[in-house]
Amino acid sequence: MLETIAVILIILWVLGLVSSYTIGGFIHILLVIAVIVIVLRVIQGRNPL
Hints:
mainly alpha
């Protein structure tokens, strides 16, 4: 479930970069959360995606 959330957050971030409309730093905060989740899963020895 965490990897699904991470993928969704990354997709939202990319959409925020592609479109000229962004909600302040919210999309970038979501990206940071997604990266942290992936890094934690790698550290725990699980498949990141």
